[in-house]
Design goal:
Distance between the termini: 45 Å
Number of strands: 31
Number of domains: 1
Length: about 400
């Protein structure tokens, strides 16, 4: 059954309350001031127009859409001006209640890990949200695709606390965020592929964090992404002050970085470091294209925690310590201690309030949004084959000039 808003129900929340598994909630253009909480499994929430169906929190609501039921699809709409998240997908009751720590992470205390199984976020625009644009926390078997995030005061897209994740983040655009994509304690069958992470403060991070369960982070595949010009001044400033970094590995292990184009990041194209007492081990940097970065690849361990078994392959790379493509060439044995370097990082400019980040451009529509049936979300998504993922073409860099000039 299709439930139309406002024809059949005056608000999105009212329509969702009427919906049964398999139903489609189809929303007409308009601005909706509500938090939509989806507790019924296997329903589809879809806007008729991605840019004209707007869930606006007015800086008074914590979240735009909160999904706590399996098999739900959220499609073709805009979520903005929420104090925490645009779209939150979670199996954690505490996270759904909205109680983040000061750093933005959800410390769920003694709450047992409970995964939400199967979800889809597609053709969603999430802008000007106080923590994350699209946030999958304590969730498995999902896809975040064809979406656009900007103005995320912590991250545009965030995946946290899943092991194994069985999650694919693909073909999204993240710009003008503090961090474009962040994966914290997100491990095993975790794929970040074909995304455009341009004009943030930091493009992408894979990290371990004691504030979340399932430490340490490990086993992600980051492939075929465009990671460029991540030193945009007109962005929110994350608490850790990252700036000018394309890819950051902070206590993450056994990750593969393949066929990415990493260019024009003024601090470092890719940086590896430790998280407190969690070392980054056995990360592989293979067949990526680096150009125009302050430093292409840098490894630094200023404290006692030092990584092991990290390796990098490539030609003509500017690395610190120098010569990493020879001294730490792939494959490397786990026992090999990673050397540590130091370099001068540029001073980041002060950030701006997330509420003042530039408005997003109009984004592509979900095909036949008004006529297509409800989406059937698979119990387990198909994982990409890294071997078939190509390096993004250099021609895609032309649009970065618009970000840098804005």
């Amino acid at each position: 059954m299709t439930i139309q808003v406002p024809a059949d129900a005056p608000t999105i929340s009212a329509a969702v309350a009427l919906a049964e598994p398999g139903d489609l909630v189809l929303v007409a253009p308009g601005v909706y001031h509500e938090t939509v909480k989806i507790k019924t499994p296997q329903i589809t929430l879809r806007g008729e127009s991605r840019d004209k169906v707007v869930i606006d929190g007015q800086l008074q609501q914590a979240d735009g859409v909160v999904v706590t039921a399996p098999g739900v699809a959220v499609e073709n709409l805009t979520v903005e001006n929420n104090t925490q998240n645009g779209v939150l997908v979670t199996g954690s009751a505490r996270a759904a209640a909205g109680s983040p720590e000061s750093g933005g992470d959800y410390d769920t205390g003694s709450e047992p890990v409970n995964f939400l199984n199967s979800f889809l976020v597609s053709y969603v625009t999430a802008t000007r949200n106080g923590l994350y644009g699209i946030y999958a926390f304590s969730a498995q078997n999902g896809v975040i695709e064809d979406s656009y995030t900007s103005g995320g005061a912590d991250s545009g897209i965030y995946v946290g606390q899943c092991k194994p994740c069985h999650i694919v983040v693909r073909d999204n655009i993240a710009e003008l965020n503090a961090v474009g994509y962040e994966g914290t304690n997100a491990s095993n069958d975790m794929y970040v592929v074909g995304n455009r992470l341009v004009g943030n403060r930091v493009g992408l991070t894979t990290d371990s964090d004691h504030q979340e369960k399932l430490l340490p982070q490990q086993g992600a595949v980051v492939a075929g992404n465009l990671v460029a010009a991540n030193q945009q001044a007109a962005t929110p400033e994350q608490a850790d002050g990252g700036w000018g970094i394309g890819i950051g590995i902070d206590g993450g292990s056994s990750n593969q970085f393949l066929h990415n184009r990493v260019t024009g990041n003024v601090n470092a194209g890719l940086e590896i470091t430790a998280t407190q007492d969690v070392p980054p081990n056995d990360n592989q940097i293979l067949d990526d294209v680096f150009a125009g970065n302050g430093l292409d690849v840098g490894w630094t361990f200023p404290n006692a925690t030092v990584g092991q078994g990290n390796c990098v392959s490539g030609t003509g790379l500017a690395t610190n310590p120098s010569g990493l493509t020879k001294t730490a060439a792939c494959p490397a044995t786990h026992q090999t201690q990673s050397p540590s370097g130091t370099w001068s990082a540029p001073t980041p400019p002060a950030g701006i309030p997330f509420t003042t980040v530039a408005a997003p451009p109009v984004q592509p529509q979900f095909p036949n949004a008004a006529g297509a049936p409800a989406t059937v979300v698979p119990a387990t998504p198909t994982m990409p084959d890294p071997a078939g993922i190509q390096v993004p073409t250099a021609s895609l860099l032309a649009a970065t000039a618009l970000v840098q000039a804005s």
